[in-house]
Amino acid sequence: MQSMLDIIELLKRYGIYIYTRDRIGDLYLMEDEIKELYKANFLDLKDYQMAMLILRQEERKIKEAKTNQL
């Protein structure tokens, strides 16, 4: 797992589609779903950790972009 696209594809494999027009909100929902998949033993620890890292990096990028627009 190396990118947001990989996370989206992972969630799709489990029938999870997230799109709310709020990019940060989408990331939080994806994070919740990843946590639930891990708790249910559908993800191993490595995939869980990498997905969480990617989601947090993406959140940071979005927030920085918003800050730079001001």
Description:
There is one protein chain. The protein has three helices and no strands. It is mainly alpha-helical. It has a single domain (about 5-70), classed as YqgQ-like (Helix Hairpins, Orthogonal Bundle). The longest helix has 25 residues, at about 45-70.
The CATH superfamily is known as: YqgQ-like
The mean pLDDT is: 96
The largest β sheet comes out as: none
Class by alpha and beta content: mainly alpha
Strand content: under 5%
List its salient traits.
70 residues; mainly alpha; Helix Hairpins; 3 helices; globular
Quickly describe the structure.
The protein contains three helices and no strands. By secondary structure, the protein is mainly alpha-helical. The mean pLDDT is 96.
Annotate the secondary structure layout.
Layout: H1 4-13, H2 23-39, H3 45-69
